[in-house]
Amino acid sequence: MTKFSGHRISTAAAIAFGLVLLVPAFAQTPAAPPPATVQQVAPAAASAPVTEAPVAASDIVVKLPRDLSPWGMFMAADTIVKAIMIGLVFASVLTWTIWFAKAIELMAARRRTREAIAALAQARSWRDAVAAIKNDGDGIAEMVTAADAELQLSADALFADGVKERIASRLERLEAGAGRRMIRGTGILATIGATAPFVGLFGTVWGIMNSFIGISKQHTTNLAVVAPGIAEALLATALGLAAAIPAVVMYNMFSRWTANYRALHADAAAEILRIIGRDLDRSTLNQRPIDRRRPAAAAE
Fold this sequence. Notes:
By secondary structure, the chain is mainly α.
């Protein structure tokens, strides 16, 4: 009995000694990482590059924008917007055509008028003036013809001042007619300059309305859906400004040129009146037959 108890005691002592040796080993084992360590690792994992899933070719075609060149936007525009664009392009072509034609006409007319004024300034009598001015339908030639016709109609006039007044009245009407004839056609430029921006704005509003209708139908606000329609609408405004700005500039330019042309006609009219007044004064000094008849009639 004593021997068996000693054996139990030695076994218990061996187990206790083993536990003493294992406790430091378990104490040195690292503990599980705290939750904060897991949270710190998560951003690092999120910053790692993510490989996107391959996109189908049909999705790429849908997301790509349409042709946004001027011709592409015109072909993709609504029918009403197309009609507005065509009208604005026609107005722009008409503006440049009028500018080209009227510029040539005005420059040639002013050159002929200056030459006629120089010829009138060198004439010493009315007969020389009539011979110097060619009857080619020009404004100055018409003025000379009208003044000569009035002199013939007033051959038996009693007073020279009345003759000059009637000639001045004819020349004034011809001067106004020359100004009206030269400004003819420029009213279209004023109309285009005043209305083209608003016509282009109407096309823009119509195109943007169509874009919003497309957004409501497709239930998306994707820029690839909205941008083409807005670009087509803004093209109408650009065409309206491209037609209006040159038209306004050209109309103002032609107004100044026409005023200068009328001033040249006024100078020619003044030169004609000077020549006629000089001849009438010479005839008065030389006592024309009609002047010699007046004293005889007064004596009777």
